[in-house]
Amino acid sequence: MLQQAFNGLVGGAFYALLALGLAVIFGMLGVVNFAHGAFYMLGAFGAFVALDSFGLNFWLALALVPVLLGAAGVALERLFIRRLAPLDPLYNFLFTFGLALILQDLVKRSYGVQSQPYPRPSELGGSIDLGLFTYPAYQVFVLAVSAVVCGAVWVVLTRTRVGMIVRAATERPELTRALGIDVGRWVTPVFGFGIALAGFAGVLAAPMRAVNPLMGADLIITVFAVVVIGGLGSVFGSVAAGFAVGLASALGNLYAPALSQTLVFILMAAVLLWRPAGLFGREEAFR
Amino acid sequence: MRLMGCGLAAAGVLLAGCAGGPGGGGGKISDGKVVLAVLNDQTAVYADVSGRNSVEAVRMAVADYKAKYGGKAASTEIEVVAADHQNKPDVANSKAQELYDRRRADVILDVPTSSAALAVANVAKNKKKIFIDVGAATTELEGKQCNKYTFHYGYNSYMLAHGTGTAVTQDGAKNWYIVYPDYAFGQDMQKTFTAAVQKAGGKVVKADPAPFPNDNFSTFLLKAPGMNPKPQVLGTMQAGGDLVNLVKQYNEYKLREKGVGLAAGLMFLSDIHSLGPDAMAGTRFTDAWYWNADPKNRAWADRFQAKTGKRPTSVHAANYSAALQYLEAVQRGGTDKADDVVGQLEGRKVEDVFARNGTIRAEDHLLLHDAYLAQVKPSAEVKEPWDYQRILKTIPASEAFQPQPDPACKL
Q: Which of A11, A119, A136 is opposite residue B216, by nearest beta carbon?
């Protein structure tokens, strides 16, 4: 039971990392980024290509791939998202959705649909005795690293000047602008950062999940539910909801396997009935 | 002149001169040519198991047929066309109609995904055109939904369940824990496997449905060793990416070391390739054919690899065989008229690179042939790329498939 809960948290770590990026992007740009799952997939494929074609190991991939994807995110924002932002949100929705399909198909063309093999890093091959039970070392690593990343983002957002600006711009863009702060300057790096986070999650997933072009598409709907449960635009809420949903689906698997996939959406419906803005969301997000 | 002759033939005036058919066969080949259509998944989950390389396998059959009969061939004009059904029954239905009507297909081959295969079988029945299914597993094709124009070639869920379920149970793994994807294929596999295990004297301790698709199987894997009685084998009915996820996690949680073996319901060479043989080592499953089982298979696999860069899965080989046997039937009858070809195929003994001791059963149009219980080799024994399987035993044709035709099948 405890072990199952631990499991749920590991699954939740991926939801949290992805939801965190989505929430920051939504908060700052007002863009619902449907290509987020595709960037997660590209992260995993990036790790595979780095190893397969360039001989770069997992650790180098973990450092390099998110940076490259983040740069791609910056270019994407500059070239397209920026131009679409003033239009109806539907344009951005269609653009990112189409982009996700294009990215998936490009990967399919080059690597096929079959999953690609990716070994666990040898340093984390064994198991760790956690006192009450032993657990695969890699999973413990994933949980720790994602907790650290989520924590670091939270610290940056609450304790630094940059974070203050981002938070202010997320919640009250006009007022922030009126105070003489150039919100536009921060939009591009924030978008790039969100994409880099998705890529980071993808690299983390490569050794423990099937690396195939559809891995992001399979996950993204659940992640959207997570963001909605946490409250659109709420950074803390999306992380908390990510871990909570992971936990709920692990326990759901245990007691009612057939229901476990629907469980997330039942949870979402229940939360929305009780708090229409999500657990940690503010009504203003919907103005 | 030749072009003009063909034009006339198409107009139904003269055939033999253009098609170079055997003496007396004039007018027997519709449109002056034989068209083989491969309808399958070209871009999604079954694209590597079958996909474009199945089209290549069918082209190989056409080339071999032409080489064998030369000027004596019933038709020297043979065309291979392909279409993508995206694994959707509605798309499969409309594509099949298009292939038969507009592209003049005389036979449709492959069609993986059971729901799509059943849709095409229905089109074949209505249009009275031949359909040889290779890629789909459902036994409905030779059961309730069988028809005069549909054949099932290669493998089915009975073969998978009885091969693996029976052999593993008789080997001493009496207690099973089955995890299956919660959709039509998985539910069907769960039932057939449970029946096979029970018949062999074993017991299914528990069978859990898992969401589909799914990337986290840890809940199921963690509870397996704690069950009472403890299952000796975990039977997974997952396919494609889900199978890869499950096996990766099976290894992470060290279930083999905890005494829970692994048996796969449906697995292809391409799946082992994705995971690397180490992750799968020891896993047992039933296969319809293996490329490196004997020199004959290997020679064909070499030709296939020269064209595609990959080793063939059993589905590729079965598509080759199905196309070849179709063309041989056309040759024997001297015509591609569907009713005549059906007559040529029914009850036919088949012995080629794919089918050993094969018979196309007249009562339900199922190809009975030898199947194989296979095990994934540990990487230390893998001497060359793609040589991942060890054949543990040959399951004779009479045991591999349903011994009696399903009484629900009325052709």
A: A11
